[in-house]
Amino acid sequence: MKDIKIFIIGFLSAGCIFLMMGQSKGNLGHIEVKSISVKNSNGVETAWIGSGDTGVGFLEIYNSGGEKTIYIGTGASGDGFMKTFNGRGSITTYSGTSDEGFGFLQTFNSYGKSSAYIGTSIYEQGLIMINDKYGEPFWGEVAE
């Protein structure tokens, strides 16, 4: 019995020494993963960062009910964008770079209908458009 105690104490002591030797006080260096998922205390995913099927990176943030509230990523054309959503999952803003390479900001009402657009036209001019509650154009102006 005494030999088993000594054996276990020796084994645990050696394990502790190996753990202390592996400890690093500095930078962890380069960490490489396929994705990172963050879950709250209820097991609901609240954040996810990773790559899509086409190899582009993106970040998704969710509320406590699991509804997506923010999406930041890279489109198929390689340009960045960000979308925000309300608690019902309807888009509320879209900001990013178009396929043509210019920036824009688009807002949506609580039902996901486009309410306003500010950005650059295909002719490199400033553009503002205001829509009605159904997403139909109401007023617009292009800088000339």
Structural commentary:
The protein is mostly beta strands. It has a domain at 47-144: Outer Surface Protein A, domain 3. Helices cover 15% and strands 44% of the residues. It is built from one helix and ten strands. The chain has one helix at 2-22; strands at 35-39, 45-51, 57-62, 68-74, 80-85, 91-97, 103-108, 114-120, 126-131, 137-142. A ten-stranded antiparallel beta sheet has the order 1-2-3-4-5-6-7-8-9-10, with no helix packed on it. A hairpin with a 5-residue loop joins strand 5 and strand 6 (91-97). The mean pLDDT is 86.
Kindly identify the CATH topology of the domain at 47-144: Outer Surface Protein A, domain 3
CATH architecture verdict of the domain at 47-144: Alpha-Beta Complex
Structural class: mainly beta
Just give the CATH class of the domain at 47-144.
Alpha Beta
**Beta-strand residue percentage:** 35-45%
Bin the helical content: 10-25%
**Parts with pLDDT < 50 across at least 5 consecutive residues:** none
The average pLDDT score comes to: 86
Count of strand segments: 10
Strand order of the largest sheet: 1-2-3-4-5-6-7-8-9-10
Tell me the major beta sheet.
10 strands, antiparallel
**Coarse shape:** elongated
* C-alpha termini separation: 93 Å
Number of helices: 1
User: Quaternary state, please?
Assistant: single chain
**Helix and strand succession?**
HEEEEEEEEEE
Q: C-alpha Rg, in Å?
A: 26 Å
